[in-house]
Amino acid sequence: MITGIGVDVVDLARFERQILRTPRLVPRLFTEGERSLPAHSLAARFAAKEALIKALGDSAGVSWQEMEVVSGDGRNPEFLLHGQAAKAVADRGITDVHLSMTHDAGVACAFVVAENRS
Where in the numbering of this chain does the 4'-phosphopantetheinyl transferase domain appear (predicted)? Predict the structure, then answer.
């Protein structure tokens, strides 16, 4: 059963300007493993984290550092959750989090489906 969905879109040019203007955003928003990626990939990951928060219903107690987007099997994106982010997912009975991301034509977009297989 689907327990939540979330979607987010990021303007790539605006995102790039923001991280250039405020460099401390990158270490605040992204894990060590994400930080070396190009701006369009960071924008897609930002959208993914926002979409996850929307799928959960709120971000209470969840840190950006606790939500990491990694390449899973077959190079498909997936979340690696830690700390309060993992607890928030478990507390809501979520067993699977599905993620799709894209970037093209000046935007990055992410879509998240939170599912309970029980």
Answer: 4-90
